[in-house]
Amino acid sequence: MKSTIEVSDKLFELYHRVHRLVNESMRDQGVSLARSKFLFFLSKLGPCRSTDIAEALNFAPRTVTEAIDGLERDKLVLRKPDPEDRRAKIVSITEVGRVVMEAAEHPRKLLIEEIFSALSDEQLDQMHEIVSRLVAKADEIRKRKEDGTVAGETAAE
After folding, report:
1. Residue limits of the HTH marR-type domain (predicted)?
2. Domains of the chain
3. 24, 26, 112, 151: most buried, per Cβ within 10 A?
4. Cα(73)–Cα(66) distance, integer angstroms
5. How many CA atoms lie within 13 A of 79 on its CB side?
6. Cβ(123)–Cβ(33) below 8 Å
7. pLDDT confidence of residue 157
8. Among 47, 79, 42, which Cα is nearest to 57's?
9. Which residues of the chain have pLDDT under 70?
10. Euclidean distance between CA atoms 129 and 143, whole angstroms
């Protein structure tokens, strides 16, 4: 039986390999995975402040500002003054940004499909259930930490 550390290490290995492959395939289409996160976010939620982006993506405000600077320079996003706060700017995706994002999304999906084709439908369902449980547990631990609840070691459920 594999230890939890061995399984965790294998999950991290998978994540890093898939991340690298996806990033390379998207970069070939003109946008890195990191930059595409901003474009996907703006495409999904619409125009918003950079502080909203930082909070939603859990990035430092300075990181978001630098990313938006680059995206704006490449004409992928547009900044306009916030009508409710003259100090703030509203960031929105441009039509060029949408085209680049959609072009990068296609190879990403193909790559993910190819990787996960190693699993049967039943295995995919099982993996989804297992990963969902792990995500829920991680969220529970994060909430405890944010609430300042001190907890000892938790037993496997």
Report:
1. 8-136
2. 4-143 (1.10.10.10)
3. 26
4. 11
5. 17
6. no
7. 45
8. 42
9. 150-157
10. 21
DSSP string, the chain: ---HHHHHHHHHHHHHHHHHHHHHHHHTTT--HHHHHHHHHHHHH-SEEHHHHHHHHT--HHHHHHHHHHHHHTTSEEEEEETTEEEEEEEEE-HHHHHHHHHHHHHHHHHHHHHHTTS-HHHHHHHHHHHHHHHHHHHHHHHHHHHT----PPPP-
100: tokens are 């680049």
**Per-residue confidence (pLDDT) for residue 34, from 0 to 100:** 83
The C-alpha atoms of residue 113 and residue 74 are separated, in whole angstroms, by 30
Cα–Cα distance, 26 to 107 (Å, whole number): 7
In this structure, the number of other CB atoms found within 10 A of the CB of residue 133 comes to: 11
Q: Which two tokens stand for residue 68?
A: 């938006």
Find the length of the chain: 157
Could you identify the residue written with the tokens 């909430």?
A: 143
pTM of the model: 0.69
pLDDT at residue 57 in the model: 85
Q: Which two tokens stand for residue 56?
A: 């939603």
- Would you state the pLDDT for residue 85? 86
